[in-house]
């Protein structure tokens, strides 16, 4: 739980989480406080990673400070500020409960703080930034990404098929690639390989990656080593749709009196020309995909209709069925509400959304 007027981005779960001061990484406000209470499952202990602690310096950190307390053992850590920083980036506690207290008085500078935590079940926590390993070491590595890293400050360049520039925020890239859900976090295994000079931008899982400007990236970095990219395991198996069905479809009659049917069969992603569209004015329209047999479905790609009409779907729900009669709404990894997927913002680009956990179904709506 969190309380106070100085709390910024916060996502706390029993196994991991992310928290920051208000306005981070901009200057935190004067005269604010926030108290976060972190609670891990019984029998585990908490590990805290200091992503950034930049509070205006003062004697004994009296003006602005970060203080951590373990109520079970009576141990305190800090206070911390710019002239009294944590001695190590990772704090290993012996407690399943930790209180994090941030407060500020009058000050002029400071980004504030950014912390993550995980339980002792996930010791390999990291990934605030993709800190490239020594080129002489192995090119494969694994980190634990905490929940809540989607909305932290920092950019990602690339996409799942090309990989991501290794200056990208690693865990944010993992959410974009669909290998973890932001609301849960998780262990990520990836490889570091020679990169390319230009990465295409993509929108996926609620995040847009960046595309560098017109000038290509130099293939050699300042250290003299080639620019590298981060590659996550990707699923390239495109499932075949045996049949399409829909709640309705649009029978268009153009200005010349010619008829054109936007039928369900035209919904396949590879179809050229116009796509499927529901009857205008229809509420709760749906499109149904029959995969022929039960399959493991890990995600979906959507695109609008770019021929003459700037049509696209901005958001949607997903339901699944094994028999075509009994339908189960998709609710994601931890929610009790039906998940709303963020769709397209134009009729040209493709948008990917991952199903974490995946669905086993024959029919998808």
From TrEMBL:
<dbReference type="InterPro" id="IPR050633">
    <property type="entry name" value="Neuropilin_MCO_CoagFactor"/>
</dbReference>
<dbReference type="InterPro" id="IPR035914">
    <property type="entry name" value="Sperma_CUB_dom_sf"/>
</dbReference>
<protein>
    <submittedName>
        <fullName>DCBD1 protein</fullName>
    </submittedName>
</protein>
<keyword id="KW-0597">Phosphoprotein</keyword>
<dbReference type="InterPro" id="IPR000421">
    <property type="entry name" value="FA58C"/>
</dbReference>
<dbReference type="GO" id="GO:0005886">
    <property type="term" value="C:plasma membrane"/>
</dbReference>
<keyword id="KW-1015">Disulfide bond</keyword>
<feature type="domain" description="LCCL">
    <location>
        <begin position="143"/>
        <end position="209"/>
    </location>
</feature>
<dbReference type="InterPro" id="IPR008979">
    <property type="entry name" value="Galactose-bd-like_sf"/>
</dbReference>
<keyword id="KW-0472">Membrane</keyword>
<dbReference type="InterPro" id="IPR000859">
    <property type="entry name" value="CUB_dom"/>
</dbReference>
<feature type="domain" description="F5/8 type C">
    <location>
        <begin position="214"/>
        <end position="365"/>
    </location>
</feature>
<dbReference type="Pfam" id="PF00754">
    <property type="entry name" value="F5_F8_type_C"/>
</dbReference>
<dbReference type="InterPro" id="IPR036609">
    <property type="entry name" value="LCCL_sf"/>
</dbReference>
<dbReference type="GO" id="GO:0038023">
    <property type="term" value="F:signaling receptor activity"/>
</dbReference>
<feature type="disulfide bond">
    <location>
        <begin position="7"/>
        <end position="34"/>
    </location>
</feature>
<dbReference type="InterPro" id="IPR004043">
    <property type="entry name" value="LCCL"/>
</dbReference>
<keyword id="KW-0812">Transmembrane</keyword>
<dbReference type="Pfam" id="PF03815">
    <property type="entry name" value="LCCL"/>
</dbReference>
<keyword id="KW-1133">Transmembrane helix</keyword>
<feature type="domain" description="CUB">
    <location>
        <begin position="7"/>
        <end position="120"/>
    </location>
</feature>
<dbReference type="Pfam" id="PF00431">
    <property type="entry name" value="CUB"/>
</dbReference>
């Amino acid at each position: 739980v969190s309380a106070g007027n100085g709390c910024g981005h916060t996502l706390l779960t029993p196994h991991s989480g992310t928290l920051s001061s208000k306005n981070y990484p901009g200057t935190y406000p004067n005269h604010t406080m926030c108290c976060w209470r972190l609670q891990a499952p019984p029998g585990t202990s908490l590990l805290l990673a200091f992503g950034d602690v930049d509070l205006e310096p003062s004697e004994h950190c009296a003006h602005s400070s970060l203080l951590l307390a373990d109520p079970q053992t009576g141990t305190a850590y800090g206070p911390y500020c710019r002239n009294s920083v944590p001695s190590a980036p990772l704090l290993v506690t012996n407690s399943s409960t930790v209180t994090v207290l941030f407060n500020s008085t009058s000050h002029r500078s400071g980004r504030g703080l950014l912390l993550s935590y995980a339980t002792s079940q996930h010791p390999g926590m990291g990934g605030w930034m993709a800190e490239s390993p020594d080129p002489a070491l192995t090119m494969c590595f694994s980190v634990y990404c905490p929940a809540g890293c989607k909305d932290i400050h920092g950019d990602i360049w690339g996409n799942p098929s090309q990989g991501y520039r290794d200056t990208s925020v690693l865990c944010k890239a993992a959410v974009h690639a669909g290998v973890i859900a932001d609301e849960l976090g998780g262990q990520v295994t990836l490889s570091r390989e020679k990169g390319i000079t230009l990465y295409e931008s993509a929108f996926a899982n609620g995040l847009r990656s960046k595309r560098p400007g017109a000038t290509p990236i130099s293939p050699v970095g300042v250290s003299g080593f080639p620019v590298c990219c981060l590659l996550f395991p990707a699923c390239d198996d495109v499932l075949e749709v045996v049949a399409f069905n829909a709640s309705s479809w649009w029978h268009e009659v153009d200005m010349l009196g010619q008829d054109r049917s936007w039928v369900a069969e035209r919904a396949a992603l590879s179809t050229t020309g116009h796509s499927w569209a529901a009857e205008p004015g229809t509420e709760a329209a749906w499109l149904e995909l029959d995969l022929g047999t039960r399959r493991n479905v890990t995600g979906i790609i959507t695109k609008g209709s770019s021929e003459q009409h700037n049509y696209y779907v901005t958001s949607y729900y997903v339901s699944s069925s094994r028999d075509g009669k009994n339908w189960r709404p998709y609710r994601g990894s931890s929610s009790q509400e039906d998940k709303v997927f963020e769709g397209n913002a134009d009729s040209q680009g493709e948008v990917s959304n991952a199903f974490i956990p995946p669905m086993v179904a024959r029919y998808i709506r």
